[in-house]
Structure formats: structure tokens, C-alpha cells
Amino acid sequence: MSIATPINLILLSFFVVLVYLQLRPKAPVSLPKGPPPVVFRTFTPTTLLPFNGENDAPVYLAVRGRVFDVTPGKNFYGPGGPYENFAGRDASRGLACQSFDEEMLTKDLKGPLDDLKDLDNEQLENLQSWEERFSEKYLVVGKLVAEGDPEAKNA
User: Fold this and answer.
1) Mean of the pLDDT values across residues 59-78?
2) N or C: which end of the chain has fewer CB within 10 A?
């Protein structure tokens, strides 16, 4: 009886193919690309305004001088969302007063920032809770300064 029978040759061929499939070079694994790095920067009200989510721009908003990247919540803060008027703006007064109306926004972008001095304790607590929520959920990407501020030259 010979070892080179047809069944043995088929089994040997099958074994060689299996070994080849296990040992062949594999394509290198490529990791998915992450978001581009965000550099902390200084914003003025006019340089913050373009970050409103339109034309696939990121969505930023400011709370008490800190600028948050709320792009992951674009459904809420971007175009068509319930808080869209805060996109690219200082949202501090509106959040403190729990009002999303246009009159809560500073109209004069070249003027001083809203100092919020006229807010009562309840409004300040509202603002604090919003600020904490943003801090837990979103990245701080910069700070907001007035147009005439010396740091505004870096904006």
C-alpha cells in the first residue's frame, strides 16, 4: 500500500492551504483617525461668532468667559437646535435666566462683555449648574475676552 494515494494527496493539499492561510502576511491594521487636535485660544465675541455650526463648522459657546466645544451636542446647539442662538456667542445670561430668546444675547459685539452683576442668587445658581454640566461634558477650547482687551490681540 502506497502513501501517495489520492485521498492522502487531497488531505495534504488541504493541510498546506490551511497552514498558508494561517501564516500568510496580513494587511497592517490601521486605526481610525481621531478628531483634529484643538488648540486652546483666546476668542473675542467677533472671532467666536463663526463657530456656530453652519457649513460644518464646529459649535462653540461661551459661559462666564470659558469657551466650550459643544459640537458633540450639535443637535441642541447647532443650526435647527433649540439652543442654536447661543452657538458662537456668550450664552451666560440666557442660561442664567433660563431664557433662549435673542434679547438675552449681547447685541454690541465690539463692546464690553456682560458682567452679569445684575443677576440674583437663583440665576447665578442656574448659571453655575450649566457651567458644571458643560465642564463635565465638553472640552474647554479657549477663553472669551472683550475686543479692547490686551489679550484680544492673540485672538
Assistant:
1) 94
2) N
